[in-house]
Amino acid sequence: MINxxxxxxxxxxxxxxxxxxxxxxxxxxxxxxxxxxxxYAELTGDFTPVHVDEDYAKTTxxxxxxxxxxxxxxxxxxxKTQCEYRFLPGMSLGWTWDFLLPIRINDTLRVKFRVGTMRxxxxxxxxxIVVLPSELINQNGEVVQRGEHRLMIPRRxxxxx
Length: 161
Fold this sequence. Notes:
The chain is of the alpha+beta class.
């Protein structure tokens, strides 16, 4: 059984029509722990020593264990769902994502995103596409990862007469 945290939101989920280019949001904080890095290794089967073996990691340019790059992307995606600015369930169309700096044990991360561009879907009436430029930021204000997420979001249903 999974322990789902209780979260009370002050704002409702948004339709595509409720968004505006330039809207921004910053997520709650997320602590990167040794246990979370180990759990990610278990989940994915990625036991690369720089992530799971401190003695080995000390011999690398990082000098210590670091989180998997894709763990950072997963954290960014999860943190977006905890923001007050959230969309109705839609479809992810993909990510473009860059790893800039290592994520270390005991880092505290937040994701900052904005609505970059918007357009109505050409192939799916009733849906719109948003591009969310995003940054994963550590406790020192450093951008450790950045990129953009493309989403297809439901449009507000048209009222019938």
